[in-house]
Each structure stands twice: as structure tokens, then as C-alpha cells.
Write a structure and sequence with these properties.
heterodimer, A: alpha+beta, Rossmann fold, OB fold (Dihydrolipoamide Acetyltransferase, E2P), 2 domains, six-stranded mixed sheet, five-stranded mixed beta barrel, B: mainly alpha, 20 helices, about 0% strand
Chain lengths: ~375, ~425
């Protein structure tokens, strides 16, 4: 997570005023301005249909922007065909050529570039070593497991030293354990090889684990682009707050604004103080966002200081191994989640009345949902 | 866990388990067999039976044996070097008289005439002129007087060759081969040696039609596999439309189009491109055009199904790895369509081998394929032995090709689609 802290490197890719429509009526990408720095791992994150894959396909050259220009190393590439862009790509289902062996698959980008045989052989061997599959070069893709195929696809996209590597949900087909292992491997490759990676996923935890920066897409627009921790701590709107991490939503109306903080009357009764992020002023509707781990449960009757104290009723507790969640009924929200301290999950009874409290800076006043 | 007790089962309890498994499986197998039984019986009677019959008829040779049983028995010990002894002549005379009485002379005459032109006359004239059983010891003289052919060795070797019960005569004839008077296999006389040419022509036409179908069908199949569903369905209807039209109607349509006063010639003449009508039909060109048209769907459909299984991601991957479109097509797309190309070509080729009506209607005399001759011998001259032998040779050649194809494909089986 340190990479984002250093002085920004020059932009390797620049999207400038990109719009894309397939049917001439509905814009899939509405207005995209995005800089990708050299050497960074950037993730395009968003729900399906948000325009992230279309953006990636435009960068790869498989889709043409309806409007705007894409620059790669300051060179406009809108009219450069995909095979001349020098961009490696890892596809969702690997797209390994089934009639070629693993070694032939990896050698393919070298052979179409007419690299001499000895050097190509050397680089294929090095790539096989990198993915720890030296002995499997003669096999065909159909004889490999999903994780192995994924590694081969990765090696094939990296073997010709492209200036940019695109990955389109490359881990979607793997099971959870393998996916987590591959996330670390890809991250490690990125760090050791110093390549620039554009990664598309709809899995927010994957994005948080791997990325230097994340661009959150929704409805054809980049909602926010920032480091993972900044996205989590300082979401600019309800969509981002909701999409990244667990989140509790309370609807309300702003009563008064005092610089960075505002007082909000909740729709379900009660009032809290929240940090102003995305509200227009007094009288505006807002939805408040509070993370489950920032909330403390205090037993009925115990006193607490601070401005945010709400009555709650315990509906359920969920045991998750490393932690537990309490599901509460708070101000009309029946699915209010609170992360419990280890060992305290059995201290709450069903239907028990409790109070919750959280700091004003942990409660964000965002645009109404 | 239960797996521990399963894997740890000792052999003594394993045997009944296997038996139980077999018993459970058997019920299913019996049910499955019962379901396919009607088809199996049907195939047995309409496919396996006739083919076995055909193969048997191509070597069956019992006609002469039935008509001239005593002669055949007498010739069994004949060395074939000189004329047979008096005993054989006497047996022949007695056989001919018996055959004349039962009216079966023509059967033997027909068979022997295949092997030696003019034998029909020899036999029938002998039957006509032989008044009674010759005196003992005079049979050779009597028969020789009626027809001098009985004094020639060839006449007798022909009978011996045709003594059955099985013969290679028809199969040899189908390959333009015959046996000389000493029983050695030699090339048939040029006026009878036509079948090698006909086989070569049959294969040449079939190969031409296959290649034409592949060239024309490949782009169509590609379009079918890549167009959006609405338009590809429309195109598919156009591909299938000929399928739903009678073969005869389609062939006749080509006659209307291609004849010297036909649509094509009239149009070309009207446009001033030609002065004399082109000869487009009753020649090889017409045969290839009509057969290609008829067989095109058989090429397009297997190609289409193999192309449909190729994910567009492969071509994208190839492009992203730096392959220009042509390279990507040749190195990534084309190899994956090979199973479809193989299946379609084999289908078209084998169907074309057996084509009969189309060449008969739109071909000239020099464009008739092997099935024309099979039909001719079956229906016109009733030479079933030769018809069967030609069929057997065609069947063998086809099987050989299918076998070669199978071997070729076996080496390069691919998974087709992507894993997952």
C-alpha cells in the first residue's frame, strides 16, 4: 500500500473524455477521464454492467470508443489494432489455445514476433520456471487444473514483456482458497517485475487485497478513484460506501450543519452527529454510513458519553469463526450489523434491548440512497 | 468419516459388493438394450443383412454347379493341362440332356458367357443338337462334332473355373483383372477393362465436389457461427432449404438453368458475353455443380458446429498476444476447425461416392460414376455377381478411407471448447 504514497509516476495510459455506446441510445461508459501510472496496479471495480469491462476492452483494442481518445505513452491508440498495441491480456476463462501445448501457448507471442528460436526457448523456460511448471510444458491446457491454466495464461501475457498487462476477472472461475493464493501470486509478480497492471473485478475484497489504486465504476461513471484504504475510510458517496466493505445505512434529514459535522434526525427516530461528506445543507435528505467495526454495544442502563447513542434491539448473532456479528434493529433498519469483540458473541440474548454508540467521525453523511 | 470404512474394506466383503454392483447394473443394461432393440433389429434386416448378402453374392458361384453337377464332379480330378478324359465328356452330355429337360441350360450359359464370350452359343447349340446320350466311348467325338469348341482347353477351364461354390471371378473383373487359361491373374482385355477408369472417375468427381463444398461452405459456416442469432437463423434457413427439397427437383432445376437454351446461357448471350451457348451440362462441369449444390449442407453443418464451439476469446487472445488477423486465423482458428473440416469432408466424400441420380441426369456418358454401373448390372443385365463385386470394392475403399481419417484424427484430439 506504500506505492500510492510516493510521488506519482508519469501517466502510462490516459483516457480522455471517453464515451461508449453499443446501441446509440444508452451510454455504457459515460464520461471517462482516467490516468494510469507506470508501474501501478490499478483495479477497475464495479457491479456487472457498470462499464468496467468495456473500458478494459477499449484499452485492449477490442472495442472502439464512440467519443474521446486513449493515449498509451502519450501516443493516441484509438486507431491502432489490438495486435500492434503491445498490451498483454489475461482473459476471464484463460483462453489458452486448446490445440497447442503449454510451452507452445507461452511461445505464441514470441513466435508471432519472430523472436529467434534459441531466445524464445530460453524465455519460455524462464516463464515456466516463474510459474513453477517446468515439467508440464508438453501438456495441453485441457490436462491442467484451473489454477495451473490461470498461471499459464499469466505467463503467456507476460512473456513478451508488454508495457501493460490487462486482466479481465482472471480469478472468477477459481474456488475461494485458490483465488486467495493466486491474488498473492499476481501481486508478487507485479512487485518483482515492475509491470503496470489494469485489473477488472467485481469482487471488492480482491480489489482491496491487490490494488495500488481502485477505480470504482457504477452506471458508466467512475464514482471514485483512490487508494484502497482511502476508499474504505473516505468514500465520496453512498454507492462507494456500500460497495466497498460492510456498511450500515441509516436514512435521515439534516437538521443543522456546523462546518465539518452535521446533526441528522433519523427517519426511524433519534438523532446523531455525522461527518459531512456529500450533503447539500440543512433540510436535505441524507443516508448515513457506519462501518460495523466502528460501533460499540453498551448494555442497557450503562451510561456513555458522546453525541451518538441509539437504542437497539438484538435480533440475532452470527458466529463467523474469527469474529461474530450482531444483527440489530436500529432506528427502523432491521439489518444493522455490529462487529463483536472476540469471545463476546454469546453475551447477547435474542430480543435484548441495548444501546449502540459510535464516534461522529465514523458516521458519514452521504447522498440519499 | 465413512470413506475410511469404504476404502478399508477387506477383499472378502469386496466380492459380494462387486457382484451386487453388477446385478444393479445389469437391470439398467437390460433396460437400455430393450430400448435400442427395435433399432438394432431394424438395422440388422435393412443394413447388416443386405451388406452381408452383397458380399456373399460377389463371391457366390453355384449356378454352373447346379446345372452341370456330374461334369463338375468329373472335372474335379482333371489337371487342366490337356483336354479332359472321355468320362468328363460323357458327364457333360448327360448333364446337358438333364438341363434341357428341366430348362436350366440358360442359367449355366449366362454365367459361363460372362467368363468366355460366346459360351452361350456353344452350350445352347450343343443342347439343341445333342439328340441322345452318346454311346459309351463316343462322347468326346459326338460333342466335338456338334461344336468344335469342346475340343479346346479354354472351354473346359472356363467350366472348371466356374465350378464354385465360391469364386474370385467377379471381384477380379471389378478390378479389370481376369485369369488366363493357366489360372494366373492377368489384366483383362482392353475392351472389358473399364472399371478402374470408372473408379478413378468416381473418386476424382467425389474429391472435386468435396473440395468445392469446403471452399464454398467454410465462409458460410463462419458467418453462421459469428453472426448475431437473428441473422444467423435466417441464414441457416437458406442453408437448410435445399435439404427440404427433393433431390430430383434440385437436379432438374440445374438442367433448366444450365441447358444450352437455359437461364444462364440466355443471360450471358443477352449480355453479349458469349455468341454461342456454352456447354454447361451433360459434362463434368454440370455434374460437379449439381452435386456440390446438393451436398453443400453436409459440409456446412459439421463446420458450423465445430466453429460454434470456438470461443471468440481465442481470436482476441491471439490478437492481444500480437498476432495479425491472418496469422491468428491460420494458427489459432483454422486448427480448431480441423475436426469439423474432417467430418464434413468425409461425409460429403462418402455421400458423393455413391451418387447415382445426379450424374445420370446431368452428366454425359463419360461422367457416369460407379453406382451407375452397379445399378445397370442389378436392374438391366441381372449380373448380380458383378454388381455385388463392384459394390464390395467401393465399400472396401470407403472403409479404408474412413479408417485413414480415423487414424489421422486420433492423433490430434483437442478439447474443443474451453475448460470450465
Amino acid at each position: 500500500m506504500e506505492a500510492g504514497m510516493v510521488t506519482p509516476a508519469p501517466a502510462l495510459v490516459r483516457f480522455s473524455g471517453i464515451q461508449k455506446t453499443y446501441d446509440g441510445e444508452h451510454l455504457v461508459v459515460r464520461n471517462l477521464d482516467l490516468d494510469i501510472r507506470k508501474g501501478e496496479f490499478i483495479t477497475l471495480l464495479g457491479p456487472s454492467g457498470s462499464g468496467k469491462t468495456t473500458t478494459l476492452m477499449m484499452l485492449a483494442g477490442f472495442e472502439v470508443p464512440t467519443h474521446g481518445e486513449i493515449y498509451l505513452s502519450d501516443r493516441p491508440i484509438k486507431n491502432v489494432p489490438p495486435h500492434k498495441r503491445d498490451i498483454g491480456m489475461v482473459f476471464q476463462n484463460y483462453a489458452l489455445f486448446p490445440h497447442l501445448t503449454i510451452a507452445e501457448n507461452i511461445a505464441f507471442p514470441l513466435s508471432v514476433r519472430k523472436t529467434n528460436k534459441a531466445e524464445a526457448q530460453e524465455r519460455v523456460n524462464a516463464a515456466l520456471r516463474m510459474i513453477k511448471m517446468e515439467t508440464l510444458g508438453h501438456r495441453r491446457p485441457g490436462q491442467l487444473s484451473g489454477g495451473q491454466q490461470q498461471r499459464v495464461a499469466l505467463a503467456r501475457a507476460l512473456v513478451f514483456n508488454p508495457q501493460l498487462v490487462l486482466m479481465d476477472e482472471p480469478l472468477g472461475a477459481l474456488d475461494k482458497r485458490l483465488r486467495e493464493q493466486m491474488q498473492l501470486e499476481i501481486k508478487q509478480l507485479h512487485e518483482t517485475m515492475g509491470i503496470t497492471v489494469v485489473y477488472v473485478t467485481h469482487d471488492q475484497s480482491e480489489a482491496l487485497t491487490m490494488s495500488d489504486r481502485i477505480a470504482v465504476f457504477n452506471d458508466g461513471i467512475v464514482q471514485q478513484i483512490d487508494r484502497p484504504d482511502a476508499l474504505y475510510e473516505h468514500p465520496v458517496n453512498s454507492f462507494v460506501a456500500h460497495f466497498i466493505g460492510e456498511n450500515n445505512v441509516l436514512a435521515g434529514t439534516v437538521e443543522s450543519v456546523d462546518r465539518d459535522y452535521c446533526r441528522v434526525a433519523l427517519a426511524g427516530g433519534g438523532a446523531v452527529t455525522a461527518r459531512v461528506v456529500n450533503v447539500s445543507g440543512a433540510g436535505a435528505l441524507t443516508s448515513l454510513s457506519v462501518r460495523p467495526e466502528r460501533i460499540v454495544i453498551i448494555p442497557d442502563g450503562a451510561s456513555s458519553d458522546g453525541p451518538n447513542r441509539l437504542a437497539a434491539k438484538v435480533r440475532n448473532t452470527i458466529y463467523l469463526g474469527d469474529h461474530a456479528l450482531a444483527v440489530l434493529d436500529v432506528a427502523g433498519n432491521g439489518e444493522f450489523m455490529v462487529k463483536l469483540q472476540p469471545g463476546s458473541h454469546d453475551s447477547l440474548g435474542h430480543g435484548e434491548s441495548v444501546f449502540i454508540t459510535f464516534r461522529p467521525e465514523d458516521c458519514l453523511a452521504l447522498d440519499p440512497v | 468419516m465413512t470413506t475410511a470404512s469404504l476404502t478399508g474394506a477387506d477383499p472378502t466383503t469386496e466380492v459380494p459388493l462387486k457382484r451386487r454392483l453388477r446385478r444393479a447394473e445389469r437391470t439398467r443394461q437390460v433396460k437400455a438394450l430393450a430400448l435400442v432393440l427395435p433399432l438394432l433389429v431394424f438395422l440388422l434386416f435393412t443394413f447388416a443383412g443386405p451388406i452381408a448378402g452383397m458380399l456373399w453374392r460377389s463371391v457366390d458361384d453355384r449356378e454352373v454347379r447346379r446345372v452341370l453337377p456330374q461334369t463338375i464332379a468329373a472335372l474335379a480330378t482333371w489337371n487342366g493341362k490337356d483336354l479332359p478324359d472321355e468320362k468328363a465328356y460323357a458327364a457333360l452330355a448327360s448333364d446337358i440332356l438333364a438341363a434341357r429337360a428341366s430348362g436350366t441350360v440358360a442359367i449355366a450359359a449366362k454365367r459361363l458367357n460372362y467368363a468366355l464370350n460366346g459360351f452361350r452359343t456353344i452350350l445352347t447349340s450343343t443342347a439343341r443338337n445333342l439328340k441322345a446320350v452318346p454311346e459309351p466311348g463316343t462322347a468326346r467325338e459326338t460333342l466335338g462334332k456338334i461344336n468344335p469348341a469342346w475340343r479346346e482347353r479354354t472351354t473346359w477351364t472356363t467350366i472348371k473355373d466356374a465350378s464354385g461354390p465360391v469364386t474370385g471371378f467377379y471381384l477380379l473383373a471389378a478390378l479389370d483383372l481376369t485369369r488366363n487359361v493357366d489360372g494366373a491373374i492377368i489384366a483383362a482385355p482392353p475392351d472389358q477393362a473399364i472399371y478402374r477408369d470408372v473408379f478413378a472417375r468416381t473418386f476424382l468427381i467425389s474429391i472435386s465436389v468435396t473440395v468445392l463444398c469446403l471452399i464454398l461452405g467454410f465462409p458460410v459456416a463462419y458467418l453462421l457461427a459469428t453472426l448475431p442469432p437473428g441473422r444467423s437463423n435466417l441464414l441457416m434457413i437458406f442453408v437448410l432449404l435445399p435439404f427440404w427439397t427433393s433431390l430430383l427437383v434440385r437436379t432438374c432445376a440445374w438442367i433448366v438453368l444450365l441447358q444450352s437454351k437455359g437461364v444462364v446461357n440466355d443471360s450471358l448471350h443477352w449480355l453479349g458475353i458469349i455468341d454461342e451457348p456454352l456447354r454447361l451440362i451433360y459434362n463434368r462441369f454440370g455434374v460437379c455443380v449439381a452435386m456440390t449444390h446438393v451436398l453443400l449442407p453436409f459440409m456446412i453443418l459439421p463446420l458450423y458446429s465445430s466453429m460454434k464451439a470456438i470461443s471468440p476469446a481465442y481470436m482476441r487472445a491471439a490478437a492481444s498476444l500480437g498476432a495479425p488477423p491472418l496469422t491468428a486465423f491460420l494458427r489459432i482458428y483454422l486448427p480448431q476447425t480441423l475436426p469439423g473440416i474432417g467430418a464434413g469432408s468425409l461425409l460429403v466424400f462418402i455421400l458423393a461416392l455413391g451418387y447415382y441420380i445426379t450424374p445420370a441426369l446431368v452428366g454425359g456418358a463419360a461422367d457416369q460414376m460407379i453406382s451407375y454401373f452397379i445399378a445397370l448390372y442389378t436392374t438391366e443385365t441381372a449380373n448380380w455377381g458383378l454388381a455385388s463385386a463392384l459394390g464390395a470394392v467401393l465399400l472396401l475403399a470407403t472403409l479404408l478411407l474412413a479408417l485413414v481419417y480415423g487414424k489421422l484424427v486420433q492423433g490430434q484430439q483437442v478439447t474443443g471448447g474451453m475448460k470450465n
